[in-house]
Amino acid sequence: MAIKSCRLSVDGKRVMSIEEFKRWLKTFDADKDGRISREELEDAMPGGWFTRWKGKRGIRSADSDGNGFIEESEINNLVEFAQKYLGVKILRL
To answer: Which InterPro entries match (predicted)?
Structure first.
Protein backbone atom coordinates (compact mmCIF):
# COMPACT_ATOMS: atom_id res chain seq x y z
CA MET A 1 0.00 0.00 0.00
CA ALA A 2 1.60 3.22 -1.14
CA ILE A 3 1.22 6.57 0.56
CA LYS A 4 -2.08 7.98 -0.64
CA SER A 5 -3.39 11.44 -0.02
CA CYS A 6 -5.66 13.64 -2.06
CA ARG A 7 -3.65 16.73 -1.16
CA LEU A 8 -0.62 17.73 -3.20
CA SER A 9 1.78 20.57 -2.57
CA VAL A 10 2.89 23.00 -5.27
CA ASP A 11 5.99 20.87 -5.90
CA GLY A 12 3.85 17.74 -6.44
CA LYS A 13 4.57 16.05 -3.11
CA ARG A 14 1.77 14.32 -1.23
CA VAL A 15 0.83 16.27 1.88
CA MET A 16 -0.29 14.78 5.19
CA SER A 17 -0.21 15.71 8.85
CA ILE A 18 2.07 13.92 11.29
CA GLU A 19 -1.01 12.19 12.74
CA GLU A 20 -2.08 10.97 9.29
CA PHE A 21 1.45 9.68 8.70
CA LYS A 22 1.44 7.80 12.03
CA ARG A 23 -1.98 6.26 11.29
CA TRP A 24 -0.82 5.24 7.83
CA LEU A 25 2.41 3.75 9.22
CA LYS A 26 0.56 1.75 11.87
CA THR A 27 -1.44 -0.02 9.16
CA PHE A 28 1.80 -1.86 8.29
CA ASP A 29 2.41 -3.15 11.82
CA ALA A 30 1.44 -6.66 10.72
CA ASP A 31 2.17 -8.37 14.03
CA LYS A 32 0.61 -5.51 16.07
CA ASP A 33 3.64 -5.22 18.36
CA GLY A 34 3.67 -1.41 18.18
CA ARG A 35 6.91 -1.36 16.16
CA ILE A 36 7.69 -1.30 12.44
CA SER A 37 10.27 -3.79 11.17
CA ARG A 38 12.29 -3.45 7.96
CA GLU A 39 9.98 -5.96 6.26
CA GLU A 40 6.89 -4.04 7.38
CA LEU A 41 8.43 -0.80 6.15
CA GLU A 42 9.22 -2.39 2.78
CA ASP A 43 5.55 -3.38 2.48
CA ALA A 44 4.69 0.30 2.93
CA MET A 45 6.72 1.32 -0.12
CA PRO A 46 6.07 0.33 -3.73
CA GLY A 47 8.58 -1.18 -6.15
CA GLY A 48 11.15 -4.05 -6.45
CA TRP A 49 14.76 -4.07 -5.28
CA PHE A 50 14.73 -0.33 -4.71
CA THR A 51 12.04 -0.88 -2.09
CA ARG A 52 14.33 -3.21 -0.13
CA TRP A 53 17.07 -0.58 -0.28
CA LYS A 54 14.69 2.17 0.91
CA GLY A 55 13.36 -0.09 3.68
CA LYS A 56 16.87 -0.81 4.99
CA ARG A 57 17.84 2.83 4.64
CA GLY A 58 14.65 3.96 6.41
CA ILE A 59 15.29 1.66 9.35
CA ARG A 60 18.95 2.71 9.61
CA SER A 61 18.11 6.40 9.49
CA ALA A 62 15.21 6.25 11.96
CA ASP A 63 16.25 3.48 14.37
CA SER A 64 18.15 5.51 16.96
CA ASP A 65 18.58 2.63 19.44
CA GLY A 66 19.77 0.16 16.77
CA ASN A 67 17.32 -2.65 17.59
CA GLY A 68 16.09 -3.02 13.98
CA PHE A 69 12.61 -1.58 14.60
CA ILE A 70 10.93 1.82 14.44
CA GLU A 71 9.14 2.49 17.70
CA GLU A 72 6.78 5.33 18.61
CA SER A 73 9.68 7.40 19.98
CA GLU A 74 11.53 7.10 16.64
CA ILE A 75 8.72 8.03 14.27
CA ASN A 76 9.94 11.62 13.98
CA ASN A 77 13.19 10.23 12.54
CA LEU A 78 11.15 8.30 9.99
CA VAL A 79 9.24 11.48 9.11
CA GLU A 80 12.51 13.07 8.02
CA PHE A 81 13.34 10.01 5.90
CA ALA A 82 9.89 9.99 4.27
CA GLN A 83 10.13 13.65 3.36
CA LYS A 84 13.60 13.23 1.88
CA TYR A 85 13.22 9.90 0.03
CA LEU A 86 9.52 9.13 -0.42
CA GLY A 87 8.22 12.38 -1.89
CA VAL A 88 5.97 13.20 1.05
CA LYS A 89 5.49 16.52 2.81
CA ILE A 90 4.48 15.97 6.43
CA LEU A 91 3.00 18.91 8.27
CA ARG A 92 3.69 19.29 11.96
CA LEU A 93 0.56 20.96 13.27
So the answer is: EF-hand-dom_pair, EF_Hand_1_Ca_BS, EF_hand_dom
